[in-house]
Amino acid sequence: MQFFVISPLLIVLLRKKYNNRTDSTEYPNGDRVYGKPYCRIPAYLVGVSVGYVLYRLDKKQLKIPLMAVLLGWCAAVATGLAVIYGLWSTYDGHQVPQGVAVFYNTVARFSWSLAVAWVAFACITGYGGFANTILSWGVWSPLGRLTYGAYLFHPLVLYGIILTWKTEFHLTISNYANLFIAGMVLSYAVAFVMSLLVEGPFMALEKLMLGKTKRE
């Protein structure tokens, strides 16, 4: 939300630049960086930049060499897999070297956002192929409307699940899978209820107000 507030300033600066142009050593732990908004803004800036590029294209057909498309997809897939499975050894109890942990925490979210940005860019510009077919499947549309609500409420859902445990939680793949499935289903269920109680009525009210404004 904080980034959304300042994004108009970034867009104004980008547009102004476009119009004016002529053709510390202390090791940071997770508590100090995980919840800080400014530690997450690189990923947000990637989204703003891609949106601005797509806006400048304005649905124009973009010609990208096949080799560049293949390299883009290979790089995006490799980057995404590296972010997800790069620290897989930690699940076996291995200690990650401090330098590796610092590097991963520094570039992981930014790298993941670049991979997702390429997927969005390729699909919108007509180079998505089979991935675009899957992502454009109509079954995702209802879930897409609930995604933001699930994002907002999933921490509360996870806290509710974890704080009710009466035994210690062991880091195993099966436990993580169970927690993920339970958290996802409950988060979307809460998002659906809140959509019916809050988002739906307010959207109807907004349409009613805009409709009255147009009739006037």
Descriptive notes:
The structure is a single chain. This protein is mostly helical and 216 residues long. It folds into 2 domains: 1-136, no CATH class; 138-216, no CATH class. The protein has helices spanning 2-20, 30-33, 41-57, 66-85, 98-124, 130-135, 140-162, 173-215. Helix 1 packs across helix 3 (41-57), helix 3 (41-57) runs parallel beside helix 5 and helix 4 (66-85) packs antiparallel against helix 5 (98-124). 6% of the residues are buried. Mean pLDDT is 81; it is low at 24-28.
| Dominant shape | globular
Radius of gyration: 21 Å
> Quick one: how many beta strands?
0
| Main β sheet profile | none
Chain-wise SSE layout:
Layout: H1 2-20, H2 30-33, H3 41-57, H4 66-85, H5 98-124, H6 130-135, H7 140-162, H8 173-215
Helix pairs in contact: 1-3, 3-5, 4-5, 7-8
